[in-house]
Design brief:
mainly alpha; Haem_peroxidase_sf; disordered N terminus; Peroxidase, domain 1; 10 helices; metal ion binding; Peroxidases_heam-ligand_BS; single chain; globular
Length: 240
C-alpha cells in the first residue's frame, strides 16, 4: 500500500465518501443549483470560512460530521435529525462528541433566506466538509450535488456501523469491507483524523494504564508527545 501526504488523504476522502451513498441518492453535477440557487455554494463557503477562522478545530468537526452521516445510511443528513425519544443517529454513543450542528443550522438558515426549500442539508454537509478542509490548507475536490435528505434516523444503526476507536485492525477492515471499501480506502478515509481534535478518553488508557498496568505508558508513543498529552489529559480528570 502506498503512502499519502496528510492532505492528499483528505482530498481523496472527499471522493471516497461518495461511495457510501445508496442507489436511491442520485447526483446531478457540481452546477446542480446553478439556476435554482446560484449563490448556494458561495454562501456555504463564506460561512464555513468564517466559522473555521474563529475556530480551526471546526474543520475536523465538519469533516467528521459528514463522515458519520455517510457511513450509516449514505450521505442523507440523517445525522442531523432529532428524536423526541433520543433514538436518532445523533443520540448514538459514537456521535456523542460530534460538533458543528449549530453552524450547519446557521448555514441552512442563510440558504433558506436566499432560496427557500432548495438546498438539501445533505449537500450542505458535503460542501462544509470540503470547504473546511480547504480553509485549513487541504486540497479541494469536485462535488456532484443533488443529494436528497433522509427522513429516517436510528441510533442503533449508528452504534452498529460506525467504526470504534478501540477496534483492532482486523475489526476495522471488516467494518469498512461491509460497505464495499478496500483496505487502502479505509486508510485514506482514516486520514481525515489528521485535522481536528480528539478526546482525552481516547488516549488516557495508553498514557497511564497501558495493557492494564497502572502507571505504564504505551512505549510506542513518542516520549515528548506523551509528555504533552499528559499535560492536556491529567490522569485523574474525566476523559472528555
Amino acid at each position: 500500500m502506498g503512502s499519502f501526504p496528510p492532505f492528499r488523504l483528505l482530498s481523496l476522502l472527499g471522493l471516497i465518501l461518495l461511495a457510501t451513498t445508496t442507489d436511491a441518492h442520485s447526483y446531478s453535477g457540481a452546477d446542480y443549483y446553478k439556476d435554482s440557487c446560484p449563490q448556494a455554494t458561495t454562501i456555504v463557503t463564506d460561512m464555513v470560512n468564517n466559522f473555521v477562522k474563529v475556530n480551526k478545530n471546526l474543520a475536523g468537526g465538519f469533516l467528521r460530521l459528514h463522515f458519520h452521516d455517510c457511513f450509516v445510511r449514505g450521505c442523507d443528513a440523517s445525522v442531523l435529525l432529532n428524536s423526541p425519544t433520543n433514538t436518532a443517529e445523533k443520540d448514538a454513543r459514537p456521535n456523542g462528541s460530534l460538533r458543528g450542528f449549530d453552524e450547519i443550522d446557521q448555514i441552512k438558515a442563510a440558504l433558506e433566506a436566499e432560496c427557500p426549500g432548495i438546498v438539501s442539508c445533505a449537500d450542505i454537509l458535503a460542501l462544509a466538509a470540503r470547504d473546511a478542509t480547504v480553509k485549513v490548507g487541504g486540497q479541494s475536490w469536485s462535488l456532484d450535488l443533488g443529494r436528497k435528505d433522509g427522513e429516517l434516523s436510528i441510533s442503533s444503526e449508528a452504534d452498529a456501523k460506525l467504526p470504534s476507536p478501540f477496534s483492532t485492525y482486523d475489526e476495522l477492515v471488516q467494518n469498512f469491507t461491509a460497505l464495499g471499501f478496500t483496505q487502502e480506502e479505509m486508510v485514506i478515509l482514516s486520514g481525515g483524523h489528521t485535522i481536528g481534535r480528539s478526546s482525552c478518553g481516547a488516549v488516557q488508557s495508553r498514557l497511564y494504564n497501558f495493557n492494564g498496568v497502572a502507571g505504564l505508558t504505551d512505549p510506542s508513543i513518542d516520549a515528548s508527545l506523551a509528555t504533552q498529552l499528559k499535560k492536556k489529559c491529567p490522569e485523574n480528570e474525566p476523559g472528555s
